[in-house]
Specification:
The structure is a homodimer of 576-residue chains.
Chain A: E1 3-5, H1 6-16, E2 21-24, E3 49-52, H2 56-70, E4 75-80, H3 83-97, E5 102-108, H4 111-116, H5 131-137, E6 142-145, H6 152-166, E7 170-175, E8 182-184, H7 201-217, E9 222-226, H8 228-232, H9 236-246, E10 250-252, E11 267-270, H10 278-285, E12 289-293, E13 314-317, E14 321-324, E15 327-330, H11 334-344, H12 349-353, H13 374-382, E16 390-393, H14 397-401, E17 412-414, H15 424-438, E18 444-449, H16 450-456, H17 459-466, E19 471-476, H18 481-486, H19 504-507, E20 516-521, H20 524-532, H21 534-538, E21 542-548, H22 556-572
Parallel strand pairs in A: 2-3, 2-4, 4-5, 5-7, 6-7, 9-10, 9-12, 10-11, 12-13, 16-17, 16-18, 18-19, 19-21, 20-21
Antiparallel strand pairs in A: 1-8, 13-14, 14-15
Helix pairs in contact in A: 1-6, 2-3, 2-15, 7-11, 9-11, 15-17
Bound molecules: thiamine diphosphate (2 copies) and magnesium ion (MG) (2 copies).
One magnesium ion binds next to helix 16 of chain B.
Chain lengths: 576, 576
Amino acid sequence: GEQITISEYLLTRLEQLGVTSVFGVPGDFNMRECPLPRVDYIEDHPRIDWIGNCNELNAAYAADGYARVKEHSIGVVVTTFGVGELSAMNGIAGAFSEMVPVLHIVGVPSTVQLKNKPMLHHTLGDGRFDAYTKAAEQITVSQATLMNKTHAAAEIDRILTDCITRARPVYLTIPTDMVAEKIPAKRLQVPLSRTPPPNDPDVEKYVLDRIAELVEEASKDIVILVDACAIRHDVRQEINDLLTKTRFPVYSAPMGKTAVSEAHDRYGGIYIGSISDPSIKDKVENANLILSIGALKSDFNTGMFTYSVPTSRTIELHSTHTQIRHALFPGIGMKQLLPKLTSHLRQFHEGASQLPVPHYKLDVPKEQDDKISHAFFWPRVGQFFQKKDVVVAETGTSSFGILDVPLPEQSVFLAQILYGSIGWSIGITLGAALAARDKQLGRTILFVGDGSFQLTVQELSTMIHSKVTPIIFVLNNKGYNIERHLHGMDRKYNDIVNWKWTSLLTTLGDTDGTLSNSYTVRDKAGLDKLLNDAEFAKADKIQLVEVILDKYDTPRGLQVAADIGEKLAKQALGQV
Amino acid sequence: GEQITISEYLLTRLEQLGVTSVFGVPGDFNMRECPLPRVDYIEDHPRIDWIGNCNELNAAYAADGYARVKEHSIGVVVTTFGVGELSAMNGIAGAFSEMVPVLHIVGVPSTVQLKNKPMLHHTLGDGRFDAYTKAAEQITVSQATLMNKTHAAAEIDRILTDCITRARPVYLTIPTDMVAEKIPAKRLQVPLSRTPPPNDPDVEKYVLDRIAELVEEASKDIVILVDACAIRHDVRQEINDLLTKTRFPVYSAPMGKTAVSEAHDRYGGIYIGSISDPSIKDKVENANLILSIGALKSDFNTGMFTYSVPTSRTIELHSTHTQIRHALFPGIGMKQLLPKLTSHLRQFHEGASQLPVPHYKLDVPKEQDDKISHAFFWPRVGQFFQKKDVVVAETGTSSFGILDVPLPEQSVFLAQILYGSIGWSIGITLGAALAARDKQLGRTILFVGDGSFQLTVQELSTMIHSKVTPIIFVLNNKGYNIERHLHGMDRKYNDIVNWKWTSLLTTLGDTDGTLSNSYTVRDKAGLDKLLNDAEFAKADKIQLVEVILDKYDTPRGLQVAADIGEKLAKQALGQV
Ligand SMILES: Cc1ncc(C[n+]2csc(CCOP(=O)(O)OP(=O)(O)O)c2C)c(N)n1
Ligand SMILES: Cc1ncc(C[n+]2csc(CCOP(=O)(O)OP(=O)(O)O)c2C)c(N)n1
Ligand SMILES: [Mg+2]
Ligand SMILES: [Mg+2]
């Protein structure tokens, strides 16, 4: 049969998975046939673009952002041995934590060198050539090193299957002498399967009956709560079908934001324990039954563990198990369960509609002051969003502020609420914007704090070069506002160096100023004017908006979270 | 006895080790007493400065640079759980590889949380709270987690002792509830010892006699070759004493550059196997005996393994062992051996002086062309260096070009020739400049490629804020020149986005332009003029010089290394 190189095999698999952009930084070990004929498999690939990042951490973030928006695909980051891969490590760990399918390809020394262990550059100098792989094992679900061509295809398929079915990062090292080894192409005819293992039919039947019973008992007072894993494990369509059939009110945890359209008439807003809007808290916590789908109960995602929904009134659906009240059903996954549940349940249209769901909206407050407060800013930008926008929020005041803002239908919301690594959103915006272009989504709009921006700012350069045109709101509040509120209101270490934010784009790549626009808005009128400007809203250039905010002002949600955190810390020390 | 907090204990130890600056990025788990009285041990310390970096990788690099220049001290970097520490990982690995004593302090959740494993932010979401420590074990020589106050002081002392005696990074995690726990201060009265374990007297005696014999047999034709570990394991003074006594000619490997003053009258230049200047190659390889001190035989440091010095004519001194021809003497370390060797050997003044050592110098060539070539640039900047300058070279054309330039006495040379992580030099420059200020050294002068600069550029901001005033030469050659020569001369992935380099300083912190100067030099005359400018040379502001170079032009040494590399790769594939 046909023979192709290992590199071609891998790239064909990526293409089958819908990958069109691969991120990374070159290095002398990665994916090049060396010395001759000097083929470069990625650069020469007709349908996969090489996106050269400024550094590897940013590349990993970009792959994460690409995977989140692209869906049914994966993000790919290519780095070089040691220096490159370790630089990417925090980005890969974030993808692990937040369940994003990312393939990390590392170019490593030849199989001969891996055995003989000469003191090569990029090594630790002590002959431990496996040290980097051991580190990677901590933050990826599968690893493979292609040490011989016989198993190469099977190994590639194994880790890619783990990547897509478990929605977590995987790690692949390719020795330089394996890059161009020939292997049979045959396996490529069978596409990789993303179907999770089937549920046991008997247990599944039992579970369905039991849920139906509880639903009947709850006499229509049932709410659905969607969360991160509904997105990651790909049950959005299934949830929508369930909603159409039952018309149960639906709420979302922060990490599930946009899993169900926030414009849906049965959507009631964000539930986040004690940080929730009181009317939402009331509806969710007092329902007779809560059907929780894809919950991920991390501290910030649950209002610092302040959920007040007793297990006895909860059914939890997960990707690998189901829990009905206190009973656990391992192996009963929601991807197959949900459609069956939808057909199993009767229509509740009339009944459920008797439970009114107040429309989730956020009005722009009337404030005397000209200054842009958080209370003003978030509802005001809320009016600016359009259908299909991709909205990215960095950890900090942004990730809290945005929660209260309903997003339009078909919009996509990205934030890293569990892992919370600042600087993430810049790389994410690059990857997200490229995926959005593939998927013909709308604008990519980023909200990032001045402190976070400083970690990864150089990736603006790659955005300019890749011709993506996000709108970037930089919240200039003179430092680490969230950290001030969590600890050290006036600590010097929470101050940052003020930058000339509006010069960044022209300095970092748009040297003649034709590809970008930058603005500073200092007051409400200035913000209004810009947001009402049709040219601005078109977003056909990359645009950066510096928003001048008060140093101490903070969104309501963050304030409450800080207060709860303080209380918990005192309790832990026995001070309360 | 007196009771102090664990934080105070640690900081006092750091102070005893001469630490005056600590680098890092704040996070809500690190080194703060929480919730009350909200003491911040580092910010409040009267004699240790907190240097807030833009990101953690840069902070780790800065700690590395600080340790390299400060000597007899260590670099310290403080990060937060997961997101911060993993971001720093590549910087710590580089310090491991190149043997630099760095302490990585990580603020982690409370001891209770470490046991109960709630789903906190910054975790992997699966309860593995030890994953980050396991990763750190791969790239540090000791680790400690302060889980109780009883062992805290001993644990701190253990890892700090490992750090200073083994000259490698160590890892310390401090749970939030341990930060302010009280412990006895008593141990602090005994300073930590950096003395390596004593050599066995009998073996040492035998080794000394044997070396003396070989020295006699070699009838005065003996050269000394110094390398990285002579610096890292602190035997520079001992080598100087040996030189004064014997007057043997001395050469240096690239990583040993400035271990012996390059202005020394018995210093002959850099030996780097087949890449060496032919006259140097000849002298070293044809000596009757080579006394190699602190060798580190990595690929780039040995001219791609092209040393041509037979073991039968070599004596190698290392920190933990000695090798005389083929015989190994484990446990005989050079720190104690060298002074004894110096007194053991007779004076060779007359004899050794008969071996002339051509003075190591590099003339500025006469070239017709106006363009700044590498052949012109390096000798020309060589004339600019002054006594006590700290010279930093990034991996790429810079680290090769600088090798041929003799540096003045008491100057310090920094490059990462073994680990070779690009972007390193920017963080290094910050740390080096702060240490140079402490030690009253001269100017800090950096040579960095345009490609490398992009990885870590934001740290200019911290330099401005910390009021250090390095001179930064950015070699603008439109991309990854070294990679072009190693592979892919015209590959697009070796091109980078051109930046407005001279706007960087005003954009990233010197907003009113009073603290910095930036220049572009396009031709020989322009470079001459700038280097002759006394104001420029004073270096009392931070200065950035963009040097316009040809896209393909490269230093001689790099060209030769690329050719050798190509040949080796062909051999490996059986093509030759
Ligand atoms: C990589 C990383 N380093 C450090 C932290 C700790 N941290 C969390 S939020 C934050 C400050 C964010 O400041 P900014 O982006 O300005 O946000 P805002 O002022 O809007 O809250 C810091 C330092 C982190 N989460 N991730
Ligand atoms: C962190 C890291 N990523 C990638 C590499 C691979 N690499 C080695 S040198 C180099 C290019 C350096 O380019 P530049 O700084 O412009 O140097 P020059 O053009 O002067 O050679 C790259 C990408 C590396 N060594 N380290
Ligand atoms: Mg801020
Ligand atoms: Mg370059």
